[in-house]
Each structure stands twice: as structure tokens, then as C-alpha cells.
Design brief:
Elements (H helix, E strand, L loop, with lengths): L25 E6 L4 H13 L4 E5 L2 H4 L23 H7 L9 E5 L4 H14 L9 E3 L4 H7 L6 H18 L3 E2 L1 E4 L1 H5 L4 H21 L4 H4 L3 E7 L3 H22 L12 E5 L11 H15 L4 E3 L12 H17 L13 H23 L3 H6 L2 H18 L26 H17 L2 H16 L5 H9 L4 H12 L6
Parallel strand pairs: 1-2, 1-9, 2-3, 3-4, 4-5, 6-7, 7-8, 8-9
């Protein structure tokens, strides 16, 4: 390590020579609720208060491919994110937000190609060409099978959709990050630090191999891969984790896939502070937790950061809570002075030893997954899911026995009840969203819609890239649910074991 400098392979010390002296991380705040109108208002509020990039949360029906007016959507519209069923919804979501200037991250997976299509068409209607767009679409379906559950199609069909996005964006949306390979949700599900790294990169290996098998060049598409990690409470351990992540991925891309383009070796990642660490009691304590976690992310060299709000263990965050979370990032960026020093913990015997141990531990797990036939095979066998479940169980035992102290939960509890102000979903605006989708379906040219969906089905049945046909469907008023159902008719649905 002593001879390694930031910006040099294997990039343990950072992907840029001067890190934040070169460019600060992108401040993002994850947001979306009730309706496109309400979410647009929150985005404008965030931009006014200094957010540099948007991060879109979608509601559950949107994530699993149902329109707001579908029977499966009842009771879930607008609850955990914004409902997007139509091009009109997407246009409203980004109304008066200049997509040429703003980078947008979209946390969406099973329906990622559809949301990307909606975003591209929305931008075009703003006069912004696809090649000018900057942002990220999560598009990481493998972790859905092990950690979240918002999958639709079987793994192989889903992987085809993922690589179609890789291929399409390389030619048409070259500045877009085509996937955000997520360790965040793996850690939220209860994994250890080593497992977060190993399972994330095992999934990454599967995506890269699938793209290569499709005929794509990792030196090209590899430069648009990005990652998404959790920042948990272990301050030094998390710093070491981020350093280890860069080293592991650079080595994988170089040694396993023969990548020579330095940009395709970089583990560029977004960090979100640990949602599972937030407590519903003594919620002000969450501000302290978030600050410590954000510091770990910055000291570990993150390219983008979301800081959770104090009240998120109870409800969607209020404007006040969101602003405080954002100010936490801004104070670190502009008042702490730590941005002047790339990898300031480099050389610390504690952090260096932790880094090496995490690298070795993660690589051992990746080797186990390789022996099982790779990530998809390990998922289908239930091995990864079982490993996460076991780790989550052990952690909960530590909390129950007070081996792990959680302030305000199993130690230093308060007896008095506190009733904080919480954000509530407006049912009238939810109903308006549902009615707007119903109205669209009755007023559009449904013959044209059916023709486009028929063409999409033909493409899905072939080996052709689905993205151009998705965009055609969007331009002809097909809804997200209708497009997703067309794929369901061809690919079927994945059944968990």
C-alpha cells in the first residue's frame, strides 16, 4: 500500500488522484411519494436547497410492473415512492426540471428498461437528446431475488433485459450509468460486511459475463457500470470496506476479464446511510448515526451520497427532516476540511489491516460462489439467501443479548412517549393518480396501442434489443403495466422457492 497513490491501480486509495479536491461527491436525497405532482414539488425543494442530483423512489406497483389502476395496486399507490404508469406521469415528475443539467438516479429494477424509455422520451419532449442525459438506472435484478423481492421475470429473461440496456445505452445514451449493482439492499437484508462486498461483486461478475456473451466489449460497457453500497455504523470498518471494494473490482475486471481501459476498472459507487440502523425510538439519535455513516462514506471515497432522514423509521420524511439530512452532507463537504485530503486514513495500520482482511474475506466467498456455478446458480440453489438469513439471525441475537448495544432500543431507553410530526399520504391525490390512468386508457387510440404492444411481443420473442420497441410503445401511450404484461406473456413470472 505504501507505494500506491490515489488514482492508481488497484485504486484502493481512490479513483482520482486528488479525489474531492478534483470534484465533490454528488449530493442526492432519495425521494418520491403520493403522486408525480407531489414528488416534483419535493425535487424542486431539494434542488433549491443545494441537491446536485435527483434520486427517484418509485412505489411498489411501479416496481413490479402494475399500473396505478390495477387491482394488485390497491392500497400501495404512492406509499413508498412515486407512482409512474404513463408518459404523462413522467413528464409531470420532471416538470420544469432541466434534464440536460440534472443527473437523475432511478431506483428501479424489474421495470428498469421501461422507466428508462419513459425518461428518454420525457427528455426528448424537453428538447434534450438522449446522448446528453446523465444519470443511473439501478437495473440490478439479481439482488432482488436474494434481498428485496421486487422481481417479475425469471433470472435468464431478466438478464437479457439488463444486457439489452447495456447495449442500447452504449450507442444511444453514452453518458448514462447502465446499472447500479447494489450491495446496499444485501446489507439491509442482514448480511455481514464481507458478504455485502462478495455478493455484490459476484452479481457484478454475472452481469459482465452476460454482456460479454452478448458480444459486448467490457472495455466499453465496463466504464458505465456503477455500484451502490450501504454505510453502516462501524466507522472504521466502513471506510475499509469502500477501499476494499475498489481494489476487488479493479482486480476482477483486469484479471478475470482482461480489461485494459482504466475507466472500466473503476469501482464508482453511490452510498446511502444505513436504513436498517434507524430507530423508531429517540429518532433524534438517527441524526448522529447518519452523520457518522456519511463521514465513513466520504472518507472512504464515495462518488455520490444520500443521507437518511431522522424520521424514516416511522414514515416518509418531512421537508424539515430532509433538509437536515442534506445539510449534514453540506457541512461535511464545506466545513470539515476532510475533502482536502484524498484517503486520509491510508497508512493507518488499523484501516489497512481491515482493508486487507475484507479483500481476502470477500474473495473467499466469491470463490465459493464460483464453485457453485456463479451468482445465478447460487441464487437458484438458495445458497446466498440462506447465508444472508443466517447472518441476520446472528446479528439479531447480538442485539437481544445486548452484545450489540443500540442506544434507545436495548440500552438507555426513554419511558416518555414522543409524537413527532410525520408526512402523511393524501388519499385524494392518490385517487387522482388512479383516475388519470383510467382516463388515459379510455381516451387514447387503443388500436394503435395494441399494435405497438404486439410488435413489442414479437421483439421479446426474438433476440432483438427490446429498448427501441419500448420507446415506440411509450411514444404511443402504452402504459408501464401494459408493457410489463407483454413481457410477462413471453417470459412468464419467477416463482420463489
Amino acid at each position: 500500500m505504501s507505494h500506491e497513490k490515489p488514482g492508481q491501480f488497484p485504486f484502493t486509495r481512490g479513483i482520482y488522484e486528488e479525489m474531492y479536491k478534483h470534484r465533490l461527491w454528488t449530493t442526492r436525497q432519495y425521494a418520491g411519494f403520493t403522486s408525480a405532482e407531489e414528488s416534483n414539488s419535493r425535487y424542486r425543494y431539494l434542488l433549491k436547497n443545494g441537491v446536485k442530483g435527483l434520486s427517484v423512489a418509485f412505489d411498489l406497483p411501479t416496481q413490479i410492473g402494475y399500473d396505478s389502476d390495477h387491482a394488485m395496486s390497491i392500497g400501495e399507490v404512492g406509499k413508498v415512492g412515486v407512482p409512474i404508469s404513463s408518459l404523462g406521469n413522467m413528464e409531470t415528475l420532471f416538470n420544469e426540471i432541466p434534464l440536460k443539467q440534472v443527473s437523475t438516479s432511478m431506483t428501479i429494477n424489474a421495470t428498469a428498461p421501461i422507466l428508462l424509455g419513459l425518461y428518454i422520451v420525457t427528455a426528448e419532449k424537453q428538447g434534450v437528446a438522449a446522448e446528453k442525459l446523465r444519470g443511473t438506472i439501478q437495473n440490478d435484478i439479481l439482488k432482488e431475488y436474494v434481498a428485496r423481492g421486487t422481481y417479475i421475470y425469471p433470472p435468464l429473461s431478466s438478464m437479457r433485459m439488463v444486457t439489452d440496456v447495456f447495449e442500447f445505452c452504449a450507442s444511444h445514451v453514452p453518458r448514462w450509468n447502465t446499472i447500479s449493482i447494489s450491495g446496499y439492499h444485501i446489507r439491509e437484508a442482514g448480511s455481514t460486511v464481507e458478504q455485502e462486498l462478495a455478493f455484490t461483486f459476484a452479481n457484478g461478475i454475472a452481469y459482465v459475463q452476460a454482456a460479454i456473451d452478448k458480444g459486448l466489449d467490457p472495455n466499453q460497457f465496463g466504464a458505465r457500470l456503477s455500484f451502490f453500497f450501504n454505510s453502516h455504523n462501524g466507522f472504521l470498518e466502513e471506510i475499509a470496506k469502500f477501499r476494499a471494494a475498489r481494489k476487488i473490482w479493479a482486480s476482477i475486471m483486469k484479471d478475470r476479464f482482461g480489461v485494459t481501459n482504466d475507466k472500466a476498472l473503476l469501482c464508482r459507487f453511490h452510498v446511502q446511510t444505513g436504513g436498517s440502523t434507524l430507530t423508531a425510538t429517540q429518532i433524534d439519535n438517527n441524526v448522529v448515526r447518519t452523520t457518522i455513516q456519511a463521514l465513513s462514506a466520504v472518507l472512504g471515497g464515495s462518488q455520490s451520497l444520500h443521507t437518511n432522514s431522522r424520521d424514516e423509521a416511522l414514515a416518509l420524511p418531512t421537508d424539515e427532516a430532509v433538509k437536515l439530512a442534506l445539510r449534514t452532507q453540506q457541512i461535511i463537504a464545506h466545513e470539515s476540511g476532510i475533502t482536502d485530503y484524498p484517503d486520509p486514513f491510508g497508512g493507518s495500520y488499523v484501516v489497512e489491516e481491515m482493508t486487507d482482511n475484507l479483500v481476502n474475506g470477500a474473495l473467499m466467498i466469491i470463490a465459493e460462489i464460483d464453485n457453485l456455478g456463479g451468482a445465478i446458480s447460487a441464487i437458484e440453489k438458495g445458497w446466498i439467501q440462506n447465508e444472508i438469513s443466517h447472518s441476520a439471525y446472528e446479528y439479531q441475537k447480538d442485539i437481544d443479548s445486548k452484545k450489540q448495544i443500540i442506544v434507545g432500543v436495548n440500552q438507555f431507553e426513554d419511558t416518555e412517549e414522543i409524537d413527532p410530526e410525520l408526512l402523511e399520504i393524501d388519499p385524494e391525490k392518490v385517487n387522482a393518480q388512479i383516475e388519470s390512468v383510467t382516463s388515459l386508457k379510455s381516451s387514447r387510440n387503443n388500436d394503435q396501442v395494441n399494435q405497438q404492444l404486439g410488435r413489442l411481443k414479437t421483439v421479446a420473442e426474438s433476440n432483438d434489443n427490446v429498448m427501441p420497441s419500448i420507446i415506440d410503445c411509450v411514444n404511443n401511450d402504452c402504459t408501464l403495466g401494459e408493457i410489463a404484461d407483454t413481457f410477462r406473456s413471453v417470459f412468464g413470472e419467477h416463482q420463489s422457492q
